[in-house]
Structures are given as structure tokens and as C-alpha cells.
Write a structure and sequence with these properties.
Blueprint (H helix, E strand, L loop, with lengths): L7 E11 L2 H4 L3 H16 L4 H8 L2 H7 L8 E7 L4 E9 L5 H15 L8 E13 H6 L18 E9 L14 H19 L9 H8 L2 E9 L2 E4 L4 E4 L2 E9 L3 H13 L12 E5 L1
Antiparallel strand pairs: 1-3, 1-4, 2-3, 5-9, 5-10, 6-9, 7-8
Helix pairs in contact: 2-3, 7-8, 7-9
Length: 286
């Protein structure tokens, strides 16, 4: 069975030099997303597609009867030494033409400053970016420094290192405060299904069932904690909770197909609030 969704990714990486890295680095994804949203909304039609990708395709969701569609972008911002940060933006679909508009937006906002304290930054050079199928991005990404074949059966343990807080929901939609491996895999399968439906080619009705069966054969040991993270949204006039799990999870008895699923999840993120940098993890072997 071919488990790969037909889903294109446009991945762009920007290098930012930040005036006050300590202040900026607390929750950079939220600060940047909020500033971009206000800017694109004010500027209007030229940035309409970017606004839709970052804040939701509401009209399409209404047509398809889905109350909460997946957001069409993932934002990750991480320190890379001194006052520098790497901003990685993943847009679901073929959106090469949006990268220059995103660069223009960042240049303008960097000069004006972002967040409550108007933190300024400078975009160094041009972004590195590319467009390709999810399959291509996954297979070209090394794990533990090695390029792995498409169907790779891990010999022993597979470790997940949760880089940013991962917000998971259990059945019924309740947020989890104790790590649950079944819920993690359910969240991942559901996310890929919805991303394919909205931004790629819809998957067969039974897609993911064999993966979830494999997941039930996995044994796991976790060393995770819930990290509290939140912000006040001036747009929504509310305090929003972005808390989630950080730490590591070791999985055993991972099938080749399940390992492929995990490789996909490392790219698209898992759980709620992925556009805010939540749900990002790295894979390690042994």
C-alpha cells in the first residue's frame, strides 16, 4: 500500500538578525504571525493568498462541511547563534510566487518592529526555498546525519525529541496533560488526512487504518512534561493557551510504514497550533 499523500510543500528559510534576541526568542512564531496578519489585512488584495494560508480557508471549509480546517502554513523560528534566528515557513501547496511577497512583508515589519515592544530585525540576504512533493522533502532529509531509503525498518529504538510544545487532543477533543502515544498517532493521521483534503489530493476513506493498527503494536517510554506557554491576542481580545508537551519519547517495534509516517510528521507538525511553531519534533535512531 502506498501511504504517501499527494501534497506539495513550499519551504522557505529566512535568516533574521534580531535587535533584542532574548525578548524576541520567547515566542517568536506568535509575534511574527500576529504582525503579519495585521499587515496583510491592512494591505489588502495583493497579500490575500498569504493571509488565507496563515489564517484559514474558511470559505472552502464551509463548502466541505468542516468547522475547523487545517491552517495552510507552518511557522518555525529557532535561534542559530548570537543575535541570529532561522525562520522556516512551510506553505502547503505550490506557492513559489508567495515567497517574494513574504520576504517583502518581513523587510517592512523588521524595520517597524513587531510585538508589544516593537522588536526590530533585519532579513539577511534572500531566502532559501524550494517546492516539491512531501515525499521528496522527507526522503531528502537526513536522520542522525544519514540519508535513509524510502522503506526503512528501524533496527531498535526510535526517539522523538519534541523541540516545541506539542498540544495533543484525545478522543472527544479534550486536551491531554499526560503523554499518550495512541493519541499522538491519531492526531498525526488526522492532520495528514485534512492537509491532503484541503491542499493536495484527498486520501482514500481507509487511509491510515493500517498505520493506526501498527501504532497499537508499539511500546513507548516517555520523558515529557507539560510546558505552559500563552499569549494575549489583541485581535481576539483573549488570553490564548499554547501549552504542550516537551521532552523525549522512545518508541519500540516501529514498522517501516509507521516510521515513514513519523518522517512525514517531522515536516508537517502534530497537534494544535502548528502555525505557532507547536508540534515540531526531530527523529533519532537508537
Amino acid at each position: 500500500m502506498d501511504i504517501w499523500p499527494e501534497l506539495h510543500l513550499t519551504c522557505a528559510r529566512f535568516r533574521l538578525e534580531v535587535e533584542h534576541p532574548r525578548k524576541f526568542g520567547w515566542f517568536p512564531e506568535a509575534v511574527l504571525r500576529g504582525a503579519l496578519g495585521y499587515f496583510w489585512h491592512a494591505e489588502g488584495k495583493r497579500f490575500e493568498r498569504l493571509y488565507e494560508l496563515f489564517f484559514g480557508a474558511a470559505d472552502k471549509a464551509k463548502l466541505q462541511g468542516i468547522a475547523t480546517p487545517p491552517i495552510g502554513a507552518v511557522l518555525n523560528c529557532s535561534p542559530c547563534g548570537g543575535s541570529f534566528f532561522e525562520l522556516e515557513v512551510i506553505l502547503f501547496g505550490k506557492h513559489e510566487e508567495q515567497v517574494p511577497l513574504l520576504l517583502e512583508s518581513l523587510h517592512i515589519l523588521g524595520r517597524e518592529g513587531v510585538g508589544e515592544s516593537y522588536e526590530r530585525f533585519f532579513v539577511e540576504g534572500f531566502p532559501r526555498y524550494g517546492v516539491g512533493e512531501l515525499r521528496e522533502w522527507v526522503l531528502n532529509e537526513p536522520i542522525d546525519g544519514s540519508m535513509l531509503p524510502e522503506s526503512f525498518l528501524p533496527p531498535d529504538d526510535v526517539s522523538l525529541e519534541l523541540e516545541k510544545p506539542m498540544t495533543l487532543r484525545a478522543y472527544g477533543g479534550k486536551f491531554l496533560f499526560q503523554w499518550d502515544t495512541d493519541s499522538f498517532f491519531n492526531n498525526l493521521v488526522q492532520r495528514l488526512r485534512q492537509l491532503a483534503q484541503f491542499y493536495g489530493t484527498p486520501l482514500p476513506a481507509d487511509w491510515g487504518e493500517s498505520l493506526l493498527y501498527d501504532a497499537r503494536q508499539v511500546s513507548a517510554s516517555s520523558s515529557t512534561r507539560v510546558v505552559r506557554r500563552g499569549r494575549t491576542s489583541s485581535r481576539q481580545q483573549a488570553k490564548l493557551d499554547y501549552s504542550g508537551f516537551k521532552g523525549s519519547v522512545v518508541l519500540q517495534n516501529v514498522s517501516a510504514d509507521l516510521f515513514t509516517l513519523l518522517r512525514m510528521g517531522a515536516w508537517v507538525g502534530v497537534g494544535k497550533n502548528t502555525v505557532m511553531g507547536s508540534g515540531r519534533y526531530f527523529l533519532f535512531l537508537g
